[in-house]
Structures are given as structure tokens and as C-alpha cells.
Specification:
Elements lengths: L2 E6 L3 E7 L6 E8 L3 H15 L3 E6 L9 H17 L3 E5 L3 H12 L3 H29 L2
Parallel strand pairs: 1-4, 4-5
Antiparallel strand pairs: 1-2, 2-3
Helix pairs in contact: 1-2, 3-4
Length: 142
């Protein structure tokens, strides 16, 4: 199963895609937001072009688990893209994934604009891979 993962930010959206077996996530790049319906249309077309059967969207919850304005925006965009692409959606708690991506890149000593772009895609990979791993763990318990 091909899955598209999104790390939704204000200006950019990190993209990750799974392999066809739904086992490994890899970075797909970064989408630079245009706003509103343009984002929904572009991301919906991308999901269809990739043959995505599911959309996984990072939900930036507050540390106490509550959903603030950013989480609500990410969920609304994700649901709109899923409708546009006609695929189901899964929301994933993404607390600390951006920080983990920052840590990895800090250790790589990458800097500047390239670092920000790679960070967004890496955060999407972390979100998607966590979801894929959870599915495998759940399936293995049966």
C-alpha cells in the first residue's frame, strides 16, 4: 500500500511517501504553500499521481495532548486533501518530530536554506515511518 505523509507547516509542507509494501518511508520533498484551495488541489493531485491509497498527516498537538490552532489547521488541510484525492486519512501525533529532525540535521552540520527544506521532509518521514511501524506492530500481534 502506497501512503503519502504530510508534515504541515505555515509556509511549507514536508512530504514523505512509503514504498509499495507500506514498510519504509522516504522523503519526497517539500511543497511550498500557495494557500487555501491551491494547496488542497496540488496536494490532492500529488496523492493521486503517486497512487497513494492513504494520507497520513502529522497532528502538532500541545505537550499536554490538547489540539491547539496549528493542530486544527493541519487536520482541516489534511481532511480537505484526503477528500480531493478520494483516500482515507490518518492523523498522527507528531509531537517532537520536528525537534528530532532538527537534532539529526544539527549532527549532520547541514545549514541554511537547504537544512530547513530537508528538515521539513525529514519530519514527514519520521511521522510516516512511525505510522507504518505501528501498523506492522499491530498486524504482528494478531
Amino acid at each position: 500500500m502506497r501512503v503519502l505523509g504530510l508534515d504541515v507547516g505555515e509556509r511549507r509542507i514536508g512530504l514523505a511517501v512509503s514504498d509499495e509494501t507500506g514498510t519504509l518511508a522516504r522523503p519526497y520533498g517539500v511543497y511550498h504553500r500557495e494557500g487555501g484551495e491551491a494547496d488542497v488541489a496540488s496536494l490532492g493531485k500529488l496523492a493521486q499521481a503517486l497512487g497513494a491509497e492513504l494520507l497520513v498527516v502529522g497532528l502538532p498537538l500541545n505537550m499536554d495532548g490538547s489540539a491547539g490552532p496549528q493542530a486544527q489547521k493541519a487536520e482541516a488541510l489534511g481532511r480537505a486533501v484526503a477528500r480531493q484525492a478520494d483516500v482515507p486519512i490518518e492523523m498522527v501525533d507528531e509531537r517532537l518530530t520536528t525537534e528530532e529532525a532538527e537534532r539529526v540535521l544539527r549532527e549532520s552540520r547541514m545549514g541554511g536554506r537547504k537544512r530547513r527544506l530537508v528538515q521539513d521532509a525529514l519530519a514527514a518521514v519520521l511521522i510516516l515511518q512511525a505510522w507504518l511501524d505501528k501498523q506492522r506492530d499491530v498486524g504482528g500481534d494478531e
